[in-house]
Each structure stands twice: as structure tokens, then as C-alpha cells.
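Thread title: Can someone regenerate the structure for this chain?

I was given the following input by a collaborator and told the matching C-alpha cells would be attached. They weren't. Posting the sequence so someone can regenerate them.
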Amino acid sequence: MQLVYADEHGRVFDHPELLAVARSGDRLVELFEDELIPLPPGATLVGLPYTRAVGMDAKTGEMKAMAPGCQAVGALLPQGYTRYYVPGYMKTDKTQLLPLFGYTAVVWKDGEFYVAAGLTDDPEPWNPENCDRKELELQVDRLLKRYPDNRLYKHLSHCALEYQCLTASNTFLQRLEGAVPVSFACNAGCFGCISEQPDDSGFPAPQTRLKFKPTVDEIVDIMLEHLKTPNAIISFGQGCEGEPSTQVKLIVEAIRRVRAQTSNGFININTNAGLTDHLRAITDAGLDLMRVSTISALDEHYNAYYRPRGYTLANVEKTLRYAADKGVYTSINYLVFPGVTDREEEIEAMIGFARRTGLKLIQMRNLNIDPDAYLELIPKAKGEVYGMKTMLDIFREELPDVAIGSYTHVPPAFAG
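Best answer:
Regenerated them for you:
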């Protein structure tokens, strides 16, 4: 398993002598055969700026950093794959933060690239290679002409064509899970927010946030178009917006108007679940699915990352419990990071959280963050670190009624 690195021109090489190593938290570790899979279709190799690749001398076992200009290389994985390790690297400039991506350790083995990851869901529905760009452009044009005054469609066209957001693209292709953003405000100040960062954060936000308050008519237009397909999912709460439940009145009215016209498909909300009263109203209006974003079931860790405003992790738990009791299919968008999520105390806390809330699905989502900045922010490990692969095995054993996946699904009772 040879070390992979990139030069200053972005050309990727395998090292003839150094073996690949990876990071679990802030520890450099060796990789094993059963932790590797071939580079999946739709994955992308990227150089990590401001880094030097680190490998291991096969004879001595010594960790060695390559010369300046030899960057570490990571893989950005498509949906369906959960990373086990971060690439092995050292920073050349510790003041610089890496762009907000989920870097996965990659090696050269048997004449091809392998990654330290495992399959946790069917990757095909969300494989970016399955998004026909020409067909997307045609459908964007069609819906913009049909709804020339709908500002949400104009906003989503930018997300689909410029950012190549698959959820926004689905809205125009009328398949799978489609997007209907509604909120420019948020009740959390997430350390790694992808749509809005303070000027002094050091993180370049990879996309811009929704800048207007849509009308109910604009929301309903998109929902009715997307729900023409019986098993389609239309979702509030996208990467280009804040917390959707801050616009509770808009959402409740939109759901009621849509459900008065069609029973097709499923209405989902992606939420931090902090505004319990707002989400009770949204649930009662006719919500089908709820996905709650979390990074931990431990208060200290959760608060350090989310920086919640006016709510606590206890509110999140109450919201999930209420929704589950009302028959909503609940899941968590679990932001996972090797060397942190697989800590003993994190695993125990999440198992208890899942049992108390009646959770149906854990969506494993690779956290997009600068590893060093994240590790400086959160509490230190208190117990053993089991490894991501072992963590998944523990979840499957301890939570037999909770599915492990990577994205929102139609509930099993309705899947056909």
C-alpha cells in the first residue's frame, strides 16, 4: 500500500518506497487490507493545500514527511460511502485552513487507487455520474419558462448548474429527493457551516445562502411539481439556507395547501430540531420524514460545534421523540469524523440517544472540515477509540431496529 501524493501542479504519484499511513483524530496509524476498498465511481482525488504528505518507511516503521511541495492527497467520496480515516499529512502553514471537504485517506495498491472507507448505502441513486448535465439544462430551462416569476426556481437553477448540487438538480429532473429552501436565518452558528461564515472564520464558505424570504406560492409551485412522482421526496432544509423551521408559518401553510391537492410522495425536513414548538406545528401539518443534523449526543461536543442559540441538545431529543410518536419516519444526519465519532463515550451516548428517541435511520455523513481546527474545538477523548469500522459493527449489533445508511430514504413500508 504505497503513499499517494501530489506535486504543485496537481499531478498525482505513488511513492516507490514509503507506505501509506492515515490519521485517526490526531494520531497517525497504519492501514489494513480489510479497511480498504477500490476508489468508487464518482469519487474525486484532491490535493490538500498547505500540507506535506506523510508516509512510513517500510524497513524501520518510521513516519516521514515528504519534501515541501509534495502535498497529501485525499479522496472526496460520493454518497453511500463512509470514510474510516483521514489522509496522513502535516501542515506547512498552520494558520491556513483546508477547504470544507470530507478528505478520505487514499493509497496505491495492486495498480489502482484504494480508499479507507466502507459502503453504508446504495451509491447509485446519488452517483454524480448519473446526473445528465444536458438533460438538466433542458429541464432548468423548461421550469424557469413555466414559472418565470418564481425566485426559488431561479435560486435553485444556480445551485444545480453552478454548484452542481445534486438535490437542487433533482428538483429540476423531478426524481429522488428535491430541494425547496425557505430560510435565510439560523438559530445555530455551526463551526463548519457551508453557506455562511463570519468574515474572520478562516473558512471559505463553498456556497452562498438564500437571500430572500420566499412566498407560499413559490414554495407550493416547487412542491407540487416535484410530488408528481408518487415516491418522490421534497425537502425543506438545504445547504444553501439556514434553519428551515425559523420559517414555520410558511412551511405549515405550504404543507397544508399541497396536501389538500395531492397525497403523492413524501414531505421531509432537514433540521437541527432546536425549535421544538415550531417543529411540532410542522409535524402536525402533515410532515412525513424528518432528518435531524447532529455531530454528537454529548452536550459539550454538540455545543462546541453547533453553537446553538436559544436551544439545547435536550430540545433536539424532544423534537425527535414527538415526531416519532406522531408516525414521522425519523433519522439523523450524523456528521462523522474518524478518531472522534468512534470514541467509546461517543458511541455509548449515541446508542442511548437513538433508543430514547425511537430513531429509524442513522445517515452516516462524512464531516466536511479542516481536521486540525475541528480537533482543537472539541473535547479530548475520554475512553478508547474503536475505529470507524468497529463502531458501525457496534451500532448494527446494539441498534438492530435502526437502519444504517447515508441519505434519506422512502420508508420501507412504502418502498416499491
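The mean pLDDT is 94.
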